[in-house]
Amino acid sequence: MRWGCLCRFLWLWACLSYTQAVPIQRVQDDTKTLIKTIITRINGLSHTQSVSPKQRIAGLDFIPGFDHDLSFSKMDEILAIYQQIVISLPSGNMIQISNDLENLRALLHLLAASQSCHLPWASGLETLANLGDVLEASLYSTEVVALSRLQRSLQDMLQQLDLGPSC
Known about the structure:
mainly alpha, 6 helices, 63% helix, globular
């Protein structure tokens, strides 16, 4: 009986000793690839090209704009808000984009942890209290502006990852 437990323990220890951590450069590459994939998905929605992301539309001020000095926590906060907006939009492919945003947030948390940044999960709920009313009043405009701004924010994040964002 003791030999059986000892053999199982040694076998488990041998398996665990061969496990290697994922290199942080690979996580960063995966993050950049996922950002590019989300941008491509948004480009695939033809109606998003008809409005400038800088255009201001009354009632859509809660949609995050542009910020070139992005920290990990700011990126997570922005992605949490966009994730809630995107999941509320009725167009096709929004569930996939929302899932991609969730995966992107997880990758950003890994990158932050690699730099010893404690990054709490942002919820974004406070910002979106009136989302239902805005969607009801101007669904098409909200969708186009949100996706255009999301695309621009993702491009900013991609550039910031090359610079090495702060906590």
